[in-house]
Specification:
It is a single chain. The chain has 213 residues and is mainly beta. Helices cover 14% and strands 41% of the residues. The protein has 4 helices and 12 strands; from the N terminus they run βββββαββββββαβαα. The chain has helices at 64-69, 161-166, 184-194, 205-210, and strands at 8-18, 21-27, 40-43, 46-54, 57-63, 80-85, 104-114, 117-123, 137-140, 143-151, 154-159, 177-182. Strands 1-2-5-4-3-6 form a 6-stranded antiparallel beta barrel.
């Protein structure tokens, strides 16, 4: 589990083809000096497991399913990647709960500089729009952001100078693909309201009236 607050960006030092996927070697600073094998790291919003620690870098594997569902299939050597270590129970939750499980891929449709801030517009898959609300949370390439506005399948996001400088958003271009993870709470609420297969029609008008609503 993560918070969507990017700790640093790391450079993709190498990509190696392996059976069923790719092995990534990513640079890290001394800030990540407590990183261990088997730890989880969010890489552009994708939860990956550390398989080896080397001098100022770590290795992780992205399997075929991960590559198919995320933009890790697009990355190239020397790209900057957003990195976040898994949250500890004692940490402050400065962003929102992020699982590192990507729900879909979005397309950047507009980037506008507004004073010190930047306005991003991202087109998200139609099936994800029901999980997004104005002023709600969403993770873009692992970054916890607030939705400023929803226009059909597009969401508008305001990027503050700190986020712009500390993440790889400053390298993004119109037409670029980004990993999308919607708010986990919305998905749980949907599941509860749907009920089980034997309770498909449970939440009807009469059901609510019987409860006094």
């Amino acid at each position: 589990m993560f918070t969507g607050l990017i700790e640093e960006t790391g450079k993709l030092l190498s990509i190696e083809n392996i059976a069923g996927g790719k092995r990534l070697r990513i640079s890290i600073s001394n800030f990540f000096d407590d990183l261990k094998v088997d730890d989880s790291v969010s890489v552009n919003g994708v939860c990956l497991t550390v398989t080896r620690i080397e001098s100022n870098s770590f290795l992780c594997d992205a399997v075929g399913e991960t590559l198919n569902k995320t933009t890790l299939s697009d990355i190239q050597q020397n790209d900057e990647l957003n990195l976040e270590r898994a949250v500890r129970l004692s940490d402050r939750l400065g962003g929102h709960l992020v699982q590192g499980h990507i729900n879909g891929i979005g397309i950047i449709t507009n980037i506008v500089k507004l004073g010190g801030n930047y306005s991003f517009e991202v087109e998200i898959p139609a099936q994800l729009t029901k999980y997004v609300v104005d002023e709600g949370s969403i993770a873009i390439d692992g970054i916890s952001l607030t939705v400023a506005k929803i226009i059909d399948k597009k969401i508008a996001l305001s990027i503050i100078p700190h986020t712009w400088s500390k993440t790889n958003l400053n390298k993004r271009k119109i037409g670029g693909r980004v990993n999308i993870e919607t708010d986990i709470l919305a998905k749980y609420v949907e599941k509860i309201l749907q009920g089980s297969k034997t309770e498909d029609n449970r939440f009807t008008d009469s059901w609510f009236k019987n409860l006094g609503y």
